[in-house]
Design a protein that fits this description.
Shape: elongated
Order of helices and strands: HHH
Structural class: mainly alpha
Number of helices: 3
Helix content: 55-70%
Largest sheet: none
Length: 79
C-alpha cells in the first residue's frame, strides 16, 4: 500500500471490530455445542471418535467465509 505523505490512509471500518466480536461469540457457541455433543461419543469405537472430532475441528471454518467477506467488503456474498 502506497502511503505517500500527502495521502491520508482510509478510515478504519466499524465492521472489523463488530465482526471480531461476532467471531468470538460464534467460536464460543460452537465449542459449547461440540463439548455437549462429545458426551454422545463416549463408548464409540476409537476411529469413529477420531472421525467425529476431525469433522468438528474442520466444520467450524466454513460458515465464517460470509462473515470475513462482510468484514472486508461490506457485502455478504461475492458478486
Amino acid at each position: 500500500m502506497d502511503l505517500a505523505p500527502h495521502r491520508i490512509p482510509p478510515e478504519p471500518s466499524w465492521r472489523k471490530p463488530v465482526g471480531m466480536l461476532g467471531l468470538i461469540a460464534y467460536i464460543a457457541i460452537y465449542a459449547l455445542i461440540v463439548s455437549v455433543l462429545a458426551d454422545q461419543l463416549i463408548g464409540l469405537p476409537r476411529w469413529m471418535e477420531t472421525l467425529a472430532y476431525g469433522v468438528a475441528g474442520i466444520a467450524w471454518v466454513a460458515p465464517l467465509k460470509p462473515l470475513f467477506l462482510w468484514m472486508n467488503t461490506g457485502r455478504w456474498r461475492q458478486k
